[in-house]
From TrEMBL:
Transmembrane segments: none annotated. One of its GO terms (cellular component) is nucleus. This is tRNA (cytosine(38)-C(5))-methyltransferase. GO terms for molecular function: methyltransferase activity. The keyword S-adenosyl-L-methionine applies.
Amino acid sequence: MHRILEFYSGIGGMHYAFQLSNNSGEFLAAFDVNTTANSVYKHNLEKEKKKSIRSIESLPISYYDSFNANIWLMSPPCQPYTRMGLHQGSSDPRAKSFLYLIDMLSKMSFPPTYILIENVKGFEESDTRNTLVTQLKNCNYNFQEFFITPLQLGIPNSRLRYYLLVNINIIRIYSDSLLSKINIRPISDFLQDDVDYEKYSIPNKTLTKYGKLFDIVKPSSRRSCCFTKGYHHYVEATGSILQLDEFLDSDQIFNNNQINSSISENTINLILRLKLRYFTEREVASIMGFPKDFSFPEEVTLKQRYRVLGNSLSVRVVAELIKYLLLD
């Protein structure tokens, strides 16, 4: 049975991915300093009493050695490698804990046999990636790097991410057939039936002012934009919104001359005919691969729910990579 440490555990995406991979293993400890994410993790994985809120770099190497874990799963903070984070890389304080783990590999008595790392596109160009790869080579690890989107698994979401698989034993030749599946499922497969439309509707003022900036999809659509932590709070590049009316053309309505002029009752009526709303947090979780019994504690606000989901990962993609990593 595998012995697993889960770093930057968030709301449990890596945990659910490992379960979905159908491998047997014990999660020895999970580490995250985000209190909201930790409460969601505990709510869903109550039997897991091994959640640590201490910073990773505050614990000695001997502590991690004591677990004798053979698998490390992690999704380190992505902000140092994004445009919004100014691409500061290793000089960003949020990269400190990850650099600590990288440095620790050569000093451990019982280093992991397998490592899986997920991060944003852009990490591959960072100095942190260079430090990581140099250390892996020095420690005689084999590794492979990928860019994968859920679309390759038939999931209607374009969450392109960087993945690194590490194995101390052998390296395998990656085959595109591993993740290139056939039909992409429609968004309707992931929607709830009993949604409170008023709760998730978009204010008229927001639609009339920023409507053209939204990425709008329909239940029959077979794609959606990546849901980020700013979803429901910011408009542009934070995730798609849903148009329940399958027949109207939203581009035509938002490009109508009446939309471009003053906000009138007729303008609002045109937009309301589209029946636009946000995806619910449950729908976002489903698209990201979380199981049907995944839920949130009542005290976690809607904004917090979207934030922790936006900081999580594609469970299905990671599950397939775990299967591949642990092949006999």
